[in-house]
Amino acid sequence: MARSTFVYVSYIRTTPEKLWTALTDVQFMKQYWFGMHCESQWTAGSSWKMVSGDGEITDAGQIIEAEPPRRLVIRWQHQKNPELKAEGDSRCTIELEPSGSAVKLSITHSIEREPSKLIAAVSGGWPKIVSNLKSLLESGAIALQENIKAA
User: Fold this and answer.
1) Is 99 left (phi over 0), alpha (psi -120 to 50) or beta?
2) Would the pTM of this model clear 0.70, i.e. be above it?
């Protein structure tokens, strides 16, 4: 089966532990994810959902793997747009690797279909989210104020 994949890599001047906390703490996440946040127990087998600022669940799934502060794999399905939801489950793998005074953050988001409108949508969102995350961790302020376009 054909696969669509988006990969994004950034180096963030922080520790793996601080980056893991930033990726999993609801209040911190709201700062760089344009008011949205993810809710989970962040353990393998636990449920996962992305919640908009007004409480709407936009995406949901399950934690497949969780190895703090190194690796997180999420089974992810969009919930809001029927066309994207119909594409089914995608897989988001987040890997943290120490690199000198920084951490290499790699995000790989893929789905078993080609082409994928979901992957096209996340390829526009992930760079903005990670840019805000990097800026917030390194300087205390986000880089982008505008909201990402909701799918």
Assistant:
1) beta
2) yes
